[in-house]
C-alpha cells in the first residue's frame, strides 16, 4: 500500500527542515563538525576533501568542493533569499514604508557601525581593510533559530522586526558582494547571462513549473554569472527576483514564489547551508599558535568588536534616531530592552560573513583562518549576550501575559 502524500517520509522531512530551529541546529552542527575535524588527527583528510577538484574543465568549472559549496550551494540559499526579499517588498511588511522604516534603518545602521569599527581597528594595517564588510552581515537562519528557541513568550512584533532587518541586511550584503568583491568583470559573459535569465523570467511569469525547463535555464544563468567574475550567488538572487509574487497564477492556492520557497527551503536549510558551513568553518585552533596569532591580529579583533559592539550600537542607535526624529514608532508590544536583545542577536554573522571573508582574503590564507576565528568568536559572543537579555525579556512578557489572563 502506498503511503499517503500527506504523511510520506519525504513530506515529513521537508516540513521538519522548514522549521527555523532545525535549520539553525543543522547549521551549528555542521560548523562544530568542521571544527572537530580541523582540530583532530584527520585534519589532513578534511583539508584534502575541501580541496578535492571536480567539474568540467572545458567550462572552467573544475573547482574544489569548498568552492562548489560557496559558489554553487549558496546560490540555492540566495535563491530562497531572493524569493523572500521580493515577497516582503511586494506583499509583506516592507511594502508599507511606515512599517518598514524602523527595521530598514536599523539594518543600515547595523552595517555601517561594524564597518566603521573594523576600519578604525585596521587603519594601521592597510592590507586588512579589504575585509571591512565581513562584520556587516547578519545570518538570518541562525538568528531566527536562536530567537525561536529563546522566545516562547516574546512578542510576535520582535520576530517581524528581526526578519525584516535580516532580509534588508541580506539585500545590502548581496549588493556589497556584487560591487566591492568583483575583481575582474567579463562583460560578454555577464550580458550572456541575461538571455537564460530572461527566458527563466518569461517561463515563470507564464506559470511554468516544469523542472526540465527551469533548472537548465537557472544552471546556465549561474554558469555565465560565475564566468563573468561576479560572485555566482548573485545569480541565485536574480533568479529569485524573477519569480512572480502577485498575479492570478496560483499553485495550490499560493503564489508561485511561495510555492518555490516551500519546495527549496528544505534543500537550502537542510543541505546547502550546512554543507557550506562544514567547508567554511573548519579552522585549526589547537596547536601551532594559530589561535594566539589570530586573537592578536587586527583582522580578528575588528570582526569580533564589529559583530558584538558594532551591530548592537548600529541597530539600537539607528532605531532610536529614527523614532526620535520621525513619526515612525516601535510596536507597543516592544520595549527598548527587547530591541537591545534583537540588536545583539544581529551580531550573528556566520554564513555571509564567512563568505565575504573568503572573497576578501582568499580561501586557505592565514587571514582567512583568522576571519573564521573572528566570525565564530563574535557570533558565539553575540548569541550568549542576546540569550541573557532575551531570556530576561521572555520571563517579563510571560508574567505580563499571565497577569492579563488572571484578570
Write the layout of secondary structure elements.
Elements: H1 9-18, H2 20-38, H3 43-51, E1 53-54, E2 63-64, H4 65-91, H5 97-121, H6 140-150, H7 156-180, H8 187-205, H9 211-228, H10 233-242, E3 250-251, E4 254-255, H11 256-280, H12 290-295, H13 298-325, H14 336-345, H15 350-361, H16 366-406
Antiparallel strand pairs: 1-2, 3-4
Structure in words:
The chain has a single domain, classed as Na+/H+ antiporter like fold, CATH 1.20.1530.10. Helices cover 72% and strands 2% of the residues. The protein has helices at residues 9-18, 20-38, 43-51, 65-91, 97-121, 140-150, 156-180, 187-205, 211-228, 233-242, 256-280, 290-295, 298-325, 336-345, 350-361, 366-406, and strands at residues 53-54, 63-64, 250-251, 254-255. The strands form 2 sheets. A two-stranded antiparallel ribbon has the order 1-2. The chain has a two-stranded antiparallel sheet with strand order 3-4. Helix 4 (65-91) runs antiparallel to helix 11 (256-280), helix 5 (97-121) packs across helix 7 and helix 9 (211-228) packs across helix 10 (233-242). Mean pLDDT is 88; it is low at 1-6. The chain crosses the membrane at residues 21-38, 58-80, 100-123, 129-150, 157-181, 187-204, 211-228, 234-251, 271-293, 299-322, 334-361, 373-392. InterPro entries: Na/H_antiporter_dom_sf, NhaA. Na(+)/H(+) antiporter that extrudes sodium in exchange for external protons.
